[in-house]
Design goal:
The protein contains 27 helices and twelve strands. Helices cover 62% and strands 8% of the residues. The termini are far apart. Among the domains are: 119 residues, no CATH class; 85 residues; 219 residues, no CATH class. It is α+β, with helices and mostly antiparallel strands and 651 residues long.
């Protein structure tokens, strides 16, 4: 029985081995056996392509297992198998066609295929066509990402075949777009390429511009007479023009071997000095080498004797330039394709410019919301009360540091921000009330003394912050839902933090209007602002109203500090970055008018972004130009955009 069982196992093993050797996938691997065994990135391509294009059901599995280093070769006959490890020295071989066990072998009788990273990348590219039709959408997305990252001509047909059966609408749209991009680059039919190019007219995608730009890329060339037939000429070039100097033209001649190099005066003098013999150079006496023509004559004699390389004189260079035609040629040989690409890029350029303007306006709007949020408190203390508070920026700084401290105790960033906003208002409101009671109340109607006193307080608060928190910038981390940006298209985007600040600015505008127009406090503030004596005679306490108004303005500055700290560095100098813009916002908009403050912030934010766009490399220059513009603006409209009317305007 033992002998019979052993014989049976031998027969089964031989049958399995014969089946493994006769399977189409094994035969294909054996046909490419030498390439696989050599396993060189430079030579392995045909073997991978043969597997990819075979149409065999097992081809995808073989490529995947090969890429994962799970392919083994049996040394006795060179057949390829998958393998399962039994122990450190023994492996079970599995038929690559059927998945059936073939037998157990010692590790020494096997050779593992270990493709390097380059070969694994080539296998990955070959697997794309299988992954495009994978039932798992994630696999199909992965395949599309791989094509977009490293496309090649072989992907085009596979991509086209996969589009018809794609059930996912989003993936189908992406496949269709990618197919058009690959058609532009790899299709042999000019009509198909032109149709694909024209389909991207006005498209803002970066991938579309990346596909079209190589079609209109040009190189400079030179020839004798007319350009050769069949070349796609973009334009002819004139030596000596603004974009094509004579030096550039002659360098092109030298590179093409159509003219000898020109010699500089220094190089000519050095060559002549190196060949002085018996008081002569090239047969010319040294005392005669006082003109450029004589030096040219001597150098020509040396070149004729083979002692120096020949060089062109100015006259010869001019003649060479005159005798040749210079032009730019497209890398793409088909004129119809380049014409379509140029037309499409022109339409894209127009739309890109329009969207860049829209993106600039969004940036200006977000910057204006920041300035408005920083200035709304100053609009109360300076615009309504007439107090020049140079420490307003430090209230912004205090609010930012309040947010930082809260985050040290509340690690949840969403909760910490929700807690920090009212807490920052409370802290800076209390600080503002204390400052008004201790300092400001004694200096009303004395603007110079108020300015100096608040400036001193500003310096003191900065130093206090340095003593407590140090000079290092402190992080104020935004919640995860504020990370990233709202991507409208490939040109226009705005960060979620700036959107949140914009919404916060609108909320405080609405809150301020509600307080001033719908509450008793607002009524009393307006009464004290217009006529404090009359308000006092009607039972309103002007001192109390001034205290609350100053505290309200300071509290809003603290909230602005939390918002600004989400994207700016929180340091003791944070407020100084916004104090000048805050005063300009209030003055330009119109002192004492909240709508004027809003318009002033919009004007200053738009102006600063516009100047930065014109001069992006120098932010300091942009701020200087902005201040000069504001000075000129105030000369023509000293009361601001929206001037107060009536008794308050006179005060």
């Amino acid at each position: 029985m033992r002998i019979l069982l052993a014989a049976l196992l031998l027969v089964v093993s031989m049958a399995a081995a014969a089946l493994a050797q006769d399977s189409p996938i094994q035969q294909l691997l054996q046909d490419n056996r030498q390439l696989i065994e050599k396993s060189s990135r430079k030579t392995i391509g045909p073997a991978i392509d043969a597997l990819r294009d075979s149409g065999l059901p097992a081809a995808q599995t073989v490529l995947e297992r090969w890429q994962a280093k799970e392919m083994w070769q049996r040394e006795e006959d060179g057949l390829f198998f998958f393998a399962e490890k039994i122990d450190s020295k023994t492996y079970r071989l599995i038929d690559i066609a059927t998945g059936a066990p073939v037998g157990t072998y010692d590790k020494g009788d096997l050779e593992q295929l270990k493709p390097n990273s380059g070969i694994r990348g080539m296998i990955g590219a070959a697997l794309v066509q299988f992954q495009l039709n994978d039932p798992d959408p994630a696999k199909r997305v992965e395949a599309l990402d791989a094509i977009a990252r490293d496309a090649e001509a072989s992907h085009l047909d596979a991509l086209r075949r996969s589009i018809y059966g794609e059930a996912n609408a989003a993936l189908k749209a992406r496949k269709e777009r990618l197919e058009r991009l690959l058609t532009i680059a790899y299709d042999d039919d000019p009509a198909a390429r032109i149709a694909a190019i024209e389909s991207f007219s006005g498209d803002l995608g970066v991938d579309a511009r990346a596909a079209l730009n190589p079609l209109v890329a040009t190189t400079r060339a030179v020839t004798t007479g007319a350009p050769p037939a069949g070349e796609n000429v973009a334009r002819t070039l004139t030596p000596g023009s603004a974009d094509f100097t004579e030096d550039e033209a002659y360098a092109l001649l030298v590179d093409a071997g159509l003219a000898p190099p020109r010699l500089t005066s220094d190089a000519k003098r050095a060559a002549l000095a190196a060949h002085v013999e018996d008081g002569r150079v090239g047969g010319v006496p040294l005392h005669e080498l006082d003109t450029e023509a004589d030096r040219d004559r001597a150098y020509t004699a040396l070149a004729f004797a083979g002692l120096v390389p020949p060089a062109a004189s100015d006259g010869e260079a001019a003649a060479a330039l005159e005798a040749h035609t210079f032009y730019e040629r497209y890398a793409e040989p088909d004129p119809a394709v380049t014409a379509a690409a140029n037309a499409t890029l022109e339409s894209i350029t127009f739309r890109v410019g329009f969207n860049q303007f829209a993106d600039l306006m969004l940036d200006a709007l977000s910057l204006a919301s920041i300035y408005f949020l920083a200035a709304i408190g100053l609009a109360i203390t300076f615009g309504v009360m007439g107090v020049i508070n140079m420490a307003h920026g430090e209230f912004i700084m205090m609010g930012a540091y309040t947010g930082f401290v809260v985050q040290q105790f509340i690690p949840n960033y969403t909760v910490s921000i929700l807690v920090a906003l009212p807490l920052a208002f409370a802290v800076t409101f209390a600080a503002g009330v204390a400052m008004e009671r201790l300092v400001i109340r004694w200096l009303y109607n004395r603007p110079l003394e108020t300015l100096l006193a608040t400036f001193g307080i500003s310096i003191a608060l900065q130093q206090l912050a340095k003593n407590i928190f140090g000079t290092q910038a402190r992080p104020l981390t935004s919640p995860d839902w504020l990370d990233g940006a709202l991507q409208i298209n490939d040109v226009v985007s705005i960060s979620y933090i700036r959107i949140a600040i914009f919404v916060l600015a609108l909320a405080f505008l609405a809150l301020f209007l509600f307080i001033m127009r719908r509450t008793r406090l607002g009524l009393e503030v307006r009464a004290v602002t217009q006529n404090p004596r009359m308000a006092a005679s009607m039972g309103v306490n002007p001192d109390r109203i001034n205290m609350l108004t100053f505290g309200l303005g300071s509290g809003i500055a603290g909230v602005a500090g939390v918002a600004i700290g989400l994207y700016a560095k929180v340091t003791s100098e944070l407020g100084q970055d916004y104090i000048v813009q805050s005063f300009m916002t209030v003055v330009v908009g119109g002192v004492g008018n909240i709508w004027g403050t809003l318009l002033g912030a919009t004007l200053i934010g738009s102006l600063q972004k516009g100047i930065e766009w014109l001069n992006p490399s120098n932010t300091l220059a942009a701020q200087t130009y902005m201040i000069l513009f504001i000075i000129l603006f105030i000369q023509f409209r000293p009361r601001g955009i929206i001037a107060l009317k009536g008794r308050a305007a006179g005060d």
